[in-house]
């Protein structure tokens, strides 16, 4: 049975898409079949991390929601995007990563914001994708904040990963989302602190966040110039397996698999 994992943050700019993509890569490197859906329809971008040329994309999540294609037709096999620094493919036999991207065309973004869509279609798409691609994990990259799509993603999740920076605004927003997730009875709630300065005591920071929310802190990820240098053109987990960020991704995967 597919395990559904939603990645969410109350505010934008936390590194949510980067985390989702690297998590997908890490799981695929362990031989799992992974699906990723970019439901951040207003500001999509996760495709860049898998080196997808948007001009070569035939169907997107938008097309599925408008009834132009099945959700399977919108799923791209992006396994070849999980490569090391030299461009060598790393995913072992049996491992796969499929991505359902959202459209980056301004007219299509504007249309979906204006006309909306049936959220139940999105729910059906998630389940169809899990079945048709025989996925071990489905990762949902959500839109920041709280809206109908976010509530749906949270409600159907086996695991909700809440990403926050060591910032008071993130702390307050995370409390709101956690309260919603507890009301929706999500089986596993995990906090991930991102963009922590190297000068911070990561253990002390994790303990402080845990004491604030009484929710497990699965990983504290560093703010790194290496991530800035990569600039969303690849996956740090694959390119730099010994990097502290990659170690944090592996710790997070251990928590999910347990």
From TrEMBL:
Q: Where is the AAA domain?
A: 2-176
Q: Which InterPro entries match?
A: AAA_dom, P-loop_NTPase, ParA/MinD_ATPase
Gene3D superfamilies linked: P-loop containing nucleotide triphosphate hydrolases (3.40.50.300)
Pfam family of this protein, just one? AAA_31
Instruction: Tell me what this protein is called.
Output: MinD-like ATPase involved in chromosome partitioning or flagellar assembly
